[in-house]
Amino acid sequence: MDGVTGEAFLAEDPLTYLPRKAVEQVKPGAVIYGPHQPSGRLYLAVLGRVKVSATAEDGRETISRLVCAEGIFGESALLGGRPWETAVALDAVTLMSWTRAEIEQQIEREPRLGLALAQYQVGQCLALQERLESMSLHKTPVRVVIALLRLALSLGMPGPGGSTRFAWLTHRTISEYVGTSREIVTYQMNRLRALGHVRYTRRYIDVYTDALVDSLRRQGIRIPEAIPEIRGKGLRASG
């Protein structure tokens, strides 16, 4: 399981200990839970992608993470819930879910599930902390590059020409993930495409991770710890 959901490496995988449940199908754009549609369940995205976000008082939405297949979300239900958190299906999504009581009963039967969920939550907190630090330390062009590396690591598969390919995300969604405007993301994406660092259509985005990492290193920018390597290319954190 990796992240946008899970950029940390886990000693225990929660999927090993969660009991199988019936699945439900969710249409693209559907709200799974939110401030006006609360849920007390832990979710597993069996197929598809889910956007988990928070809305500030000024109405601006910021993505805390993008959950891909085999990713867990909604774990706040185990801690009493977060009324400001919203989960929306980006694609047609297949979900499996458990109530808080079901999770507690399963932990009694299999204590390692509790350890695995605790490790998972710590990993999410560390990844979010690092993203917040990136927002405060770097200017927008660098933040867009780092975001594309994270998305490639979390959502991507090997693509043509040494790229990492993931399914299309709108520039608005990327801007919510970066924490900037859609117009700025569009400008930066066009710039990176002109440099040959990304390629995209309405179906996919190809990220040339070697080129992006090299551009960061030339600027003397440290590669975040949460991006220790990009799909086996041996790109280690530096600086």
Give a description of the structure.
The chain has 6 helices and 12 strands. The chain has 239 residues and is α+β, with helices and mostly antiparallel strands. The strands form 3 sheets. The chain has a 4-stranded antiparallel sheet with strand order 1-8-3-6. A hairpin with a 5-residue loop joins strand 4 (50-55) and strand 5 (61-67). Helix 3 crosses helix 4 (171-178) and helix 4 packs across helix 5 (182-194). Residues 1-10 and 228-239 have low confidence and may be disordered.
What is this entry, summarized?
The chain is of the alpha+beta class and 239 residues long. The chain has helices at 100-109, 111-137, 140-155, 171-178, 182-194, 209-218; strands at 24-26, 31-33, 41-47, 50-55, 61-67, 71-73, 85-89, 93-99, 157-158, 164-167, 198-200, 204-207.
**Main sheet attributes: strand count, strand direction, barrel closure:** 4 strands, antiparallel
Percentage of helical residues? 25-40%
Distance between the termini: 27 Å
Question: What is the correct CATH architecture of the largest domain?
Answer: Sandwich
Question: What would CATH call the homologous superfamily of the largest domain?
Answer: Jelly Rolls
Rg (CA only): 18 Å
Q: SSE order in H/E notation?
A: EEEEEEEEHHHEEHHEEH
Number of helices: 6
Characterize the quaternary organization of these chains.
single chain
The total number of structural domains is: 2
CATH fold-type name of the largest domain: Jelly Rolls
Average pLDDT rating: 85
